[in-house]
Amino acid sequence: QSTRRICERRFQRDLEDHSTLTTPSFENIRTFLLAAFIAMEQPQTHLAWTYISIAAGMCHSLGYHRKCTLERTVEAEHRQLVRQVFWTVYLIDRSTYFVLGFKSNFVDEEIDQPHHDLSDDPQQRPWDEYFRVYTAFSRQQGRFQRTSLSAAAANLCDKQRQSIVDGISTDISDIQCTLQSINFQEARYPDSLTNAVCAAHNQAYSLLTCVHWARSDPQTRPMINHECQRYARLALITFTNVPCTAEGSLLLRDTNLVTWMFTTYSFVPMMVVYICLLKANDPSDRDLLARTHHILETNKERSKDAARLCEVVSVFL
Fold first, then answer.
1. Core-most of 36, 53, 194, 302, by most CB within 10 Å?
2. CA dihedral sign of residues 165, 166, 169, 171
3. Is the pLDDT score of 100 beyond 70?
């Protein structure tokens, strides 16, 4: 805690220096990336978005999104670290903008920067594989925003919207299969990686819920189809089954993941299941919402976002 306070004081001091905000550098990118992580823990998601947007802008200014620029301007021994930082900024950007409903700072078509190499360390390698898979999932979030939530998407016909939904659904299913192929047991902190993978599946189902809800014609009332209902229920089921959210899970690294989960969690699956409950009064939906509420109640002392969601879900019950 004392080290963290020292870092926070130094960061506040650096913010008073105009050059920290205006001078693109690798060091400043890391500074704002760390600040975004801290803001998400508090949680102050809008502040995190501000910090990560600054970091993303510096990445663009330095050309970190382009392979040729990085190879020309960064020494070979430093490129792996720069790539790792760049893709971490990308992931935080995608996670926060999707929750807040903002526009991403990155355009996938403009990025040709490869990932950092997979580690030769058998304990680190599964985490690197997970990082790559999660990046692929984040790309699907961006694809969904561009193809289904943009102004141009409102003019698409039913056939075009269905084609988009089918494409995203197929790609996310492939990503989930790749996720399952990771050897968790060989990883450093295998339980934590298992938690992270479970959380990733939850986010995948949440995104699929949004994708299938967006299948409706935006000019008319949004319709909840069968696939939308199915993915919403799967999202809540996986949400209630993430081990680190269970009562008694108190490891610091688990707490950090719990904070991340609730900060980046989409409210859409809860809303869809609630609407289905109002229509059909299915006891299984009521039970699912009750289990979700219990998980939120269990974790509200660990996460302010969990406490906020808990209040909302309690209205459903």
1. 36
2. negative
3. yes
